[in-house]
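Bench log. Compound arrived from synthesis this morning; before running ITC I wanted a structural hypothesis for how nicotinamide-adenine-dinucleotide sits in the protein. Inputs:
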Amino acid sequence: MDERISKIKKLISISNQIVAFTGAGFSAESGISTFRGAGGLWSKYNPSIYADINYFIKDPSYYWNFFRDERYPVIKKAKPNDGHYALVELEKLGKIYRVITQNIDGLHQMAGSSEVIELHGNTRKIFCMNCDKTYSMDRVYNLLKKELPPRCSCGGILKPGTVLFGEPLPQVALDMANIAARNCDMFIVLGSSLVVYPAAALPEIAKNNRAKLIIVNIDPTPLDNIADIVINESVSKVLSELI
Ligand code: NAD
């Protein structure tokens, strides 16, 4: 691994437009379970029931039970880890151009990253499907003690601000991410299985536009064969060596 770390250091020293692309593995060391990989949430919860827009419309109580018992307690106490702070350091050095994240936990912003593109929304933001009024996570958690599914003051059903399966990605975020992938000089994937599209197309776009592609993920990914450097290690271990 030492030789690959030295190569990445050299690449960082000559790059000024780095995109860090983070996935669930990046927040694993903040205590938030990934979906896939060892101990992933989908081994416990069926995504076509708990994270699918069509099922949510049919019966939102499954999602809100999951939110109350699993999501809220974990996200509420999660804090940014060394990896989040390492990206803030790189931003201060003028190296980071954008952080593109598939994570919905808001930890990059909490750590202090300023150029964050959230592709899959944010679980801390909840809104009414009828009138669009927004609610905080804490407020909805309290509402859940009284009724399931939680409702807006207008009577509408509340929906998480995350992108569920079957929903399109927020267009503005997707456009910004595509532009960043086309314009960066280095694209580093940190803790993503790279199987969720269209997000997983971004590394290829960057590579096709002559950026160096680095992948750091514990498990192999389908894009390892086009990457310049692959390290199958924990993100925090690699980032702490880099910083
Ligand atoms: P994923 O769950 O599909 O894959 C996570 C990957 O991270 C796995 O391949 C695993 O090997 C790797 N990994 C686990 N711990 C790691 C570590 N410490 N260092 C390096 N790699 C590690 O995650 P994904 O690719 O981001 O999938 C996308 C979906 O997961 C998104 O829709 C995202 O919204 C959602 N998600 C987000 C969170 C979060 O916000 N923290 C948590 C779970 C799932």
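What the model suggests: The domain at 33-77+122-162 is CATH 3.30.1600.10 (SIR2/SIRT2 'Small Domain'). The CA atoms of residues 64 and 149 lie 6 Å apart.
ITC booked for Thursday regardless.
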